[in-house]
Fold this sequence. Notes:
Elements: H1 3-23, H2 27-38, H3 41-62, H4 69-86, H5 94-103, H6 105-109, H7 122-139, H8 143-147, H9 157-178, H10 180-183, H11 188-212, H12 217-244
Helix pairs in contact: 1-2, 1-3, 1-11, 2-3, 3-9, 3-11, 4-7, 4-9, 5-12, 7-9
Amino acid sequence: MSLMSGLALISVVFLTSMLSGVFGMAGGLVLLWFLLILFPAGTAMAVHGVIQLTSNGSRAWLSRRFIVWRIVMLMTLGVLIAAALLLFSYSPNTATVSLLIGLMPILVWIPKRWFHLDANRASHALGCGIAAGSLTIAAGVSGPLIDIFFVRSQMDRRQVVATKAMIQVVAHSIKILFYLGAAMALSTSEWGIVLLAAPFAIFGTHTGNRILQRLTDANFRTWTRWIVTGIGGFYFLQGLFLLTR
């Protein structure tokens, strides 16, 4: 990795963590796109996991008093089940990852009345963990999918962001272990740059968290929907391009 690429990575980590600090998602989508330019898909997943673990971990810590721990524990069990199911049967590539992420915005536009999902229900929380764990390992991110399990809950925006952050701490931790072999392809100096960039995720998250406090619940959901849609559309077009090359 060149010096310019390293400086670009640090900048992208800060900006995308700030974006996630506000909306609880979206930042990870942009960061993964940048990492897929720098690295093969498996290695990009591992690096993404390390940085997102830092970002989500700091966001969860800043909002720790709003975390709903019962939901987190049930979803953690689901994530572990998903990892076990995919362990011997999945190998990522950039085209597949792009198409999976590109289809995610469909989830944020489906009318709420169609959903009968509530993360407060034990079976739904477990199902969310299995689905989110599968998508995190297969595509690197799962924010929009997790979100549909919260649309019918009575949780406010702070509880949603905090609980989702803690769930993603678990999911990204499992993802790092899943792609540990691919991570070994990075040199010591490249990992040094990645670890140098990781603290900037905390700075970005802190900045985004301050912006979050100024948003209303209505603005929070509207902006989230449009941002995720724009990013997803870009990913989908990229995936089609890679398939037809």
